[in-house]
Amino acid sequence: MAAKAAVVVGGGEGRYSTTLYKEVLPFVALVAMECINVGLNTLFKAATNHGMNNHVFIVYAYAVAAVCLLPAPFFSNRSTVLPPLNASIMLRIFLLGVIGCTSQIMGYTGINYSSPTLASAISNLVPAFTFILALIFRMETVVFRSATSRAKVVGTIVSVTGAFVVTLYQGPTIAFTTTSPSNAIQLLTSTQPNWMLGGLFLTTEYLLVPMWYIVQTQIMKVYPAEMTVVFFYNLTVSILAAIVGVFMVPDLNQWRIRLDISLVSILCSGIFGSFVNNTIHTWALRVKGPVYVAMFKPLSIAIAVAMGVILLGDTLYLGSIIGATIIAMGFYTVLWGKAQEQNDYYKESDDLESPTAEKLPLLQSYKHQDVSNR
Fold first, then answer.
1. DSSP states along 311-326
2. CA 210/CA 199 separation, integer angstroms
3. Collapsing DSSP states into helix, strand and coil, what is residue 72?
4. What angle do CA 202, 208, 211 make, to 5 degrees?
5. How confident is the model over 190-237, as pLDDT tens digits?
């Protein structure tokens, strides 16, 4: 009887550990990464205002990340049996690097022409395009008779809608501060001549990000070593960006990093962005899939607004509250759909294990007989 209790307790602990690993940790990590990304984009904008070139920034930031991850191919996942790092896998990582390098150049150029807030707003495109690509590559399924599928579709649409409400609708003031009003309207009426060009660059970036998610997920299926893959990815992006930078930035003086906000931005983006952010996103893609990861992108605009109010003293408007509420509704709708899929998976697993459970009394009877003979 004690053995049976141990089996039950062990199963409960295993289920709890699985829930913690596959549900709680990805959620907390991805929310934290969106907060960090908003801060890093703001820091990059400050550095470019002080004269740093975005091509130079990408080369150095990804080089910093590659140096931090240099031991990864020798020490990561030693307890896991991995296939050889052959030419096929390296070719996929190179493709990932091409996509990542292109998206980063487009993204940072767009921020340079516009603002981090606009970048957060246009990131609303990521969930929709990721969901479409996941359907094309059969990484997600939609059965409209299923409540979980309807929840994922509706939640994605609602979350994206909420993010656009935050961006496009101001509404009356909720709170007053002594600082200047929020720049929500300035987003759409900026006097910068290249504002629309910046939006075009950012849109291109967020069309490439879902492709990055899909390719990275495919790599994780054949080579599940996050640190090693991210090391080679960062190295590839740094080399490709350097090749582009030689032609785009021929002036050697611009490659000299001053001991000011430029150096701080490069180090922070290299460590917390290219290193930590890419590693966590790669791990989350393996654990939860591309659609789940993409759903956190619309949170960035709400986070940008919240950080502006809390840290910068921006004025809070009704549109921000309404949009954030809509984002939360859509976000949790998708999470509910994914959670129901996980519960269905557990139920199917329990059904498959039930024949073994039926044999347990016979095993216990055999053990009891063996103890009696002793």
1. HS-PPEEHHHHHHHHH
2. 18
3. helix
4. 155
5. 444 466 787 788 888 888 998 998 999 889 888 888 888 999 999 999
Q: Which of 16-25, 182-191, 294-303 has the lowest mean pLDDT?
A: 182-191
Strand partners, 173: 317
Tell me the three state secondary structure of residue 307.
Answer: helix
Query: In 10 A of CB 56, how many CB atoms?
Result: 21
Find the helix or strand (DSSP H, E) in which 317 lies: strand 316-317
Place of tokens 């004269």: 51
Question: Can you tell me the distance from the alpha carbon of 174 to that of 270, in angstroms, rounded to the nearest whole number?
Answer: 37
φ, ψ at 317 (rounded to 5°): -115, 160
For the chain, domain boundaries: 30-144+194-313
Q: Which helix (H) or strand (E) holds 316?
A: strand 316-317
| Residue 245 and residue 56 in contact, taking contact as beta carbons nearer than 8 Å | yes
Instruction: Give pLDDT, residue 93.
Output: 94
> Tokens 């966590």 belong to which residue?
280
Average pLDDT over residues 12-32: 74
Q: CA distances (Å), 86 to each of 92, 104, 221, 231, 282, in order? A: 10, 27, 15, 16, 20
Question: Which segments of 92-250 are extended strands (E)?
Answer: 173-175
- How far apart CA 161 and CA 127 sit, in angstroms, is 11
What whole-number distance in Å separates Cα of residue 128 and Cα of residue 17? 31
Specify the amino acid at residue 224: P
The per-residue pLDDT for 12 is 53
| Chain position carrying tokens 């141990």 | 6
The answer to whether 98 and 181 have CB atoms below 8 angstroms apart is no
Phi, psi torsion values for 175, nearest 5 degrees: -135, 145
More confident site: 237 or 22: 237
Q: φ and ψ at 315, to 5 degrees?
A: -80, 140
**Closest Cα partner for 313 from 177, 183, 166, 170?**
177
The pTM assigned to this predicted structure is 0.71
Question: 241: closest CA among 363, 64, 85?
Answer: 64
